[in-house]
Amino acid sequence: xGNDQFSEQRWQQQPGAWPSPATxxxxxxxxxxxxxxxxxxxxxxxLLLCGGxxxxxxxxxxxxxxxxxxxxxxxxxxxxxxxxxxxxxGVLALIGTILGIIGVVMANRKKLFAxxxxxxxxxxxxxxxxxxxxxxxxxxLRAGAR
Length: 146
Description:
Elements: H1 2-13, H2 21-27, E1 31-32, H3 34-64, H4 78-105, E2 109-110, H5 112-145
Parallel strand pairs: 1-2
């Protein structure tokens, strides 16, 4: 106890030895950006949806092609589920990209998760846009051939 009083008196004798509240706040460890963490979680969910999308697409294509293929029933939910997964992945990637950008420009926050979320969501968004553009181009070519 005597040692604590001695160190306290020593600090009181030296002016400016205690950090000011402004320097104490700036020296505090930074927290990760909450929006960056959410962007990264959305990127992982979007990756899962993209994986499901491609799995269903391969199931659908495999069922309509090949030597032993059976025609898919007209009311099959596989194409609809694949489309909804693709759209859902694109929407989640768009939201994650926006949150990643906001997380990167936030002040006084660590930006690791924001950059990870922004990179993954941006790539997924570009991939989803490319798939949709290919689909629309395919429809345009089929419509022009008729």
